[in-house]
Amino acid sequence: MTAGSLGPYCTRPPFTLCPVAEAPHRPHSADIKRDAPATPSSYQHDALGNRIKEAWTDARGAIDYSYLPGNYLVERGSTSYSWGTYGQLILKDDQPNALGGETNYDYNARRLMAQVRVDGSPVAQFFYDPYGRRVKIVEGDTTTTTITLYSGNDIVYEVKTKPGQPTLTTKYLAINGKYLAKVVQEGTNPPETYFYHTDLVGSVRAITDGHGQVVARFEYELFGVTVQASGTLADEVHKFTGKPEDAAIGLYYFNVRYCDAGTGRFTSKDPKEDTVNSYAYPRWNPLVTSDPTGEWGKDDHSGLTAALAQKAGFAERAASILGTAAACPDELASGISPVPVIGDPSWHFNTSRPGLPDSRLQHFLESKDQALDLAAQGKWDEALFAFGKGLHALQDYYAHGNQTPGTHFAGDIGETLWKYVTERKLVVYFWADDPLVDVPFGPPADSVTIGGWRPMSRREKSEFISLQELLAFQRRLRDLGCPSTYFE
Length: 488
What we know:
single chain; four-stranded antiparallel sheet; 22% helix; alpha+beta; 2 domains; 24 strands; 7 helices
């Protein structure tokens, strides 16, 4: 499916990626000189966000993907994949028709990756604390061991030991997954300080030393494959979106699960399972979004809307369009993000004068009218996209209540401190759409009830109203002659 017909309703098409067009705000090469141009690549995705083809301009050429129902990747070119009972990757075979080339993935009772074996030999073992954070790595038979300490979900201290070599100690300065600097000491040598230089999503693009000299440069393809790494610190662990890359197994560690940059997807399901595709990298758009904890669906309009759309009777593909559209207004590239001046906060917060209808409800009603007009013309995909985008404003009406961007941001800081104290986690979503965060500011919690016996939480209310609107929209589309393939 191409995204040309959906373009007028959001500057970020839902199923294709175009780096320059989608993220004109992203610095590509202005600050750090590149050693050489990166190899261009392109991708095609289906309606559920599964990559079905990738194309490179070098010897790799075109690579096809195939899947089983449930978004299970089974083939990528000549490589085959197998999955376990709980949806975790358990086998990757680079030579399915010959001996060797098998990588096995073992998991503990909590379904966290515990060991990786290549052709039967262990290459890495992982150990976790009670919060599910990885605190120890043992690599191969050389007993290279890395011990990790955290502040929330940020790594702040590491000790790496290897027989016959001096101990390597690293202290990190990080804030909510963004790594700013590190102090490295090898054995008894004097400690050395380095500074990270990152892009919009937190990927490390360069490292400088205490004298301001560039000691490492990095370039990535869209989903995190390192295509260039140069300098004396080219073996840096923290790379794509600031996450540590385990060179021994070729995966990025995303707290609760691991990500394969080569396929652009996770090796296990999102524990929250709030989206139609629990393996997909966030919103299938790595240029302007990231996944700080491996649980992107938690506060995501996309996951909520897509799941409710299927409950309302829409087919997976239609639900995916609705969910993608609902996420669109939060993205900078959409032009209607909550960021003042370059966006349009009226989609997210009430900007109407006193006595006038809430600006978010106006946007929803206008989007619904636009969707029905498009449906009357037989433009079904465009109609779904327009309606899904409008649902974002409706959901924010309940999630944000009478907040302004300033008060909402302050609420997120309070939520961060609360989680850090009570859960030892540090998770911040800038202007997050989490009704649980916004309880003190929104409409009265008892304005809608379930079964007439108890007040709805703010999240329940948002889901309840969204579901009712989706049910009504689904019935209207059927009345207008929408093909049966759009419904379950």
